[in-house]
Amino acid sequence: MARAHARMAPVLFSLFVVSASFVGGVGASTTQTETVTLTVTVVDQGGNPLSDARLSATWDGGGPVNRTTAGNGKAFIDVAEGADVTIRIDHPHYVRNHPYVVENASEGDVRIRVAQKGKATVSVADANGAVDNAIVRMFHDGKPVVNARTSGDGTFTTDNIEQGNYTLITFKEGYLRNRTTLTVDGQVSQSMTVEQDSVLVSFSVTDDHFDPPRPVTGANVTVPDIADVTTQGTGGVTVSVPVNDAYDVTITKPGYESVTRRLSVRESETSLNASIQRQSAIDVRADSDRVVVGEPVRVTVVDEYGNPVSGASVSVGGSSAGETDENGVLRVPVESAGNVTISAESDGREDAVTVEGVQAGGGATPTATATATGTQTDAATETDSGVGPGFGVAGALVALLLGAVAARRRA
């Protein structure tokens, strides 16, 4: 019996291997991407089939699949089912401005039209001669085909493009656009003239901390290499800026956060509105700049907009004095004579104020004492005039009268 079991073991192992291979095969087949066949026909503008057109098909994660059309203009391309397939065409005499795209590919026919090849050379100049780095744009049936710049001699030559009618536009930063219709029926040339110009741009700067935002006067508006101006009472300023360009405009003011805004200028007046806010800060204020030693001074902590800052840590001479209340207020004792520094800190913002501690009876009191002493000295001077203390002229007359009466009685 043991031998029978031994003979059966290889058989069972073989069955296991076959079963595993079968299961693995089924799993692998279910994960493969299904393919479909596109029957592609390439024709010219008259609908005639074209042979020798080289096709290259690509899609996300697949391709390229390369085929060449036969005498009937057809080629068969296997692609992933449901994919968006891009087909590019190359032919000795024909061209297509844009690749052909098959969306959500499925089995079926695809007809692709091409046109005869052409080229265009565009020359751009202004009143002073050739304009280098000028922009050349060409549109066919409303779709962009060319977007390039002229070389140092002010010219640009296209690659092979479809023959037909194009909208041609030339310009440059600081220059007005020139537009025309160009017919490409082979190799053609076209001269274009451009001229410089500027338009007015109105800038408005506000502080949007407020509702509604408030105008910011005295803000600097900088347009690189063009202008550096300052906003007026309404928070606005107007500048002449060259056309058809884009600028990074910077707005600054002391005590405010700087901002940079992108400004695109075309060929008509435009505007740019920008908002800035004050830099985060605190301000420590004392109700009095002179305080009697031993008495408290009322300290208020506010933010950059004058709003009370609660919970600000207040210290005197480096020693903690407490925190401000919901109104931003703390009464801080002044315990020494001379200048006393009161500091506050909140969320990394710091500020300080200095008050003077004076001893009781000091400050203005000595002046008052000195005045009183001076008055007493004047009174003493009057007493030294030969009349007794507390006597004036009237008192002296009364004394003389009393003396005369007494003399008569003795007589």
Q: What is this entry, summarized?
A:
With 411 residues, the protein is of the alpha+beta class.
Supply the key terms.
six-stranded mixed beta sheet; Immunoglobulin-like; 3 helices; five-stranded mixed beta sheet; 4 domains; 411 residues; disordered C terminus; disordered N terminus; alpha+beta
In CATH, the topology of the largest domain is named Immunoglobulin-like
Instruction: Please work out how many helical segments DSSP would assign.
Output: 3
Residue-averaged pLDDT, rounded?
86
Structural class: alpha+beta
Number of domains: 4
Low-confidence stretches: 1-31, 364-411
Distance N to C terminus? 185 Å
Query: Total strand count, please?
Result: 33
* Biggest sheet details: 6 strands, mixed
CATH architectural group of the largest domain: Sandwich
Q: Give the class-level CATH name of the largest domain.
A: Mainly Beta
